[in-house]
Amino acid sequence: MVVPVHDVAAYLPACLDSVLAQSHRALEVVVVDDGSTDGSGAVADAYAEQDARVRVVHQANQGLGAARNAGLAHATGALLAFADSDDVVPPDAYATMLEALRRDDSDLVTGSVARWEDGRLTEPPWMRRLHRERRALGIAELPELMGDVFAWNKLWSRAFWDTAGLTWPEGVRYEDQPTLTRAYLAARRISVLPEVVYHWRIRTDGSSITQQRSSLADLTDRWSTKRDSLRSVEQWAAGAPAATGGEVVDVMRDRVLAGDLHRYFTEIPGCDDAWWELLRSGVLSLWGAGAPGGRGPTSLTASGLPPVHRLTGWLVEQGRREDAAAVMAWMAEHPGPAPRTSGPDGARLALPGLDPASLDPAAVALRAHEV
């Protein structure tokens, strides 16, 4: 397995302790010290001195993707796993995944994840939904599984990894999604497990990449990885039966790629002009009239986003920055279900300050399960 490390001396011992305590003992742990400046490399070296299963690679800082690739170059086992150095792996995780890989003759196994925050473990509802039962399948049977974009809750066949030509993008954030998308599309069979196989530490110090969404660099990389992933799905769909390929593309666009937009929409109040323009251009490129296979200028209204975020997405598409900011600011101050009303056309959102006559009915419509 590969553990990339950069300036995580405070967290690395817990990670390595959890890996080395696995009930599956036959491990090769390649720790890649990616130019750490805080003593993380020395911590890793100390573990290597104490346990022959640990090897350490030291390199100049090149980023997460490059560190993972460096670890891959040094890994010799028939199986692959990845762990981020600030997280923890439950004791039976690899044994459980290995059993499934062998039982199902799968190319990769994915289990559920628990967020580790403020000393509590919580399985996100969307992860629980994707992993609600034990099964082995191809991605066309559960295309929404492509929303499970994490590298570290999985066990891979190294033969599959190499045959599929998989690698991690370098020099870009959110490198997991393009690689995971290609892996799902290439796999003959994927084992999906309900067990939680990874504890994902949620850091509150702002140093996590996923806590830097208000930066231009973050948003630029996010659009890049979304477009890359969608291209892979569209290429795969071109060789699949039309109905199957179309369904997988639709799920990828409307549920998987749209799934984290709400995290960016919350940054709209107070954002600068450049960030707003980048947000809007990205939304239009993936969901607007000019998007590949575009289905009209308001396609985010058909996405799997919650109602308020579908509305916000439509406002972004229309360039209505002040209204989008007002909606997000109002919701931040009023947690809970958004105001709604009913009329001849059914239930719809009724947020203060928005003129209903100025809104596309599809942008405020509520679905049956949302009423």
UniProtKB/TrEMBL annotation:
Q: Which Gene3D superfamilies match?
A: Spore Coat Polysaccharide Biosynthesis Protein SpsA, Chain A
Top-tier EC class: transferase
Note the Pfam families from the entry: Glycos_transf_2
Provide the alphabetized UniProt keywords: Glycosyltransferase, Transferase
**Is this entry keyworded Signal?**
no
What terms describe the molecular function in GO for this protein? Answer: glycosyltransferase activity
Domain (Glycosyltransferase 2-like) ranges? 2-128
Under InterPro entries, the record lists: Glyco_trans_2-like, Nucleotide-diphossugar_trans
SUPFAM superfamilies named among the record's database cross-references: Nucleotide-diphospho-sugar transferases
Enzyme Commission designation:
2.4.-.-
What CDD domains does the annotation carry? Glyco_tranf_GTA_type (cd00761)
Write down what this protein is called.
Glycosyltransferase
Q: Which organism is it from?
A: Nocardioides kribbensis
